[in-house]
C-alpha cells in the first residue's frame, strides 16, 4: 500500500519533489514512522493513475531512508501482464482474529 501519493503530468518531468508526513494516505502510516521506503514513479498509459496496469511505465528507487535528498528515479520499465499478475496472486487478510493467506 502506498504511504504517500502525488500526481503530476508527464510534461512536468523532470521535477523536484518532497515527500513528507503531510502527504500520508492514512494518518497512522506516516513516512517518518518507517526506517526505509521505496519511491516509485509511474506514468499511467491510461492517464487515470491508481494501481499499476500493464503498459504503464515506471521506475523505482532502492530502499532509502525518509528524508533522503537528491534522489534520481529513472522511469525505465514497462509494467507487463506477468508482473501485474504476480503482484495480485497472493493476499494476506484477517477474518476476525485469524490471519490467512489466499494464494491464487
Secondary structure topology:
Elements: E1 40-43, E2 57-60, E3 77-78, H1 81-87, E4 90-95, E5 98-103
Antiparallel strand pairs: 1-2, 2-3, 4-5
Short structural description:
The protein has 104 residues and is mainly beta.
How does the helix and strand content classify structurally?
A: mainly beta
* SSE string, helices as H and strands as E: EEEHEE
Mean pLDDT: 77
Low-confidence stretches: 85-95, 99-104
Approximate helicity band: under 10%
Adjacency order of strands in the biggest sheet: 1-2-3
- Please indicate the percent range of residues in DSSP E strands (runs of 2 or more): 15-25%
- The number of distinct structural domains comes to 1
Oligomerization = single chain
Number of strands: 5
Q: How many H/I helices?
A: 1
- Anisotropy-based shape: globular
Distance between the termini: 20 Å
Radius of gyration: 16 Å
Amino acid at each position: 500500500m502506498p504511504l504517500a501519493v502525488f500526481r503530476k503530468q508527464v510534461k512536468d518531468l523532470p521535477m523536484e519533489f518532497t515527500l513528507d508526513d503531510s502527504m500520508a494516505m492514512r494518518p497512522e502510516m506516516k513516512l517518518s514512522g518507517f526506517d526505509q521506503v521505496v519511491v516509485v514513479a509511474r506514468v499511467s498509459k491510461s492517464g487515470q493513475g491508481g494501481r499499476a496496469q500493464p503498459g504503464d511505465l515506471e521506475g523505482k528507487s532502492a530502499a532509502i531512508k525518509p528524508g533522503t535528498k537528491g534522489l534520481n528515479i529513472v522511469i525505465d520499465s514497462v509494467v507487463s501482464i506477468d508482473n501485474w499478475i504476480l503482484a495480485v496472486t497472493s493476499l494476506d487478510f484477517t477474518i476476525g482474529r485469524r490471519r490467512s493467506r489466499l494464494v491464487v
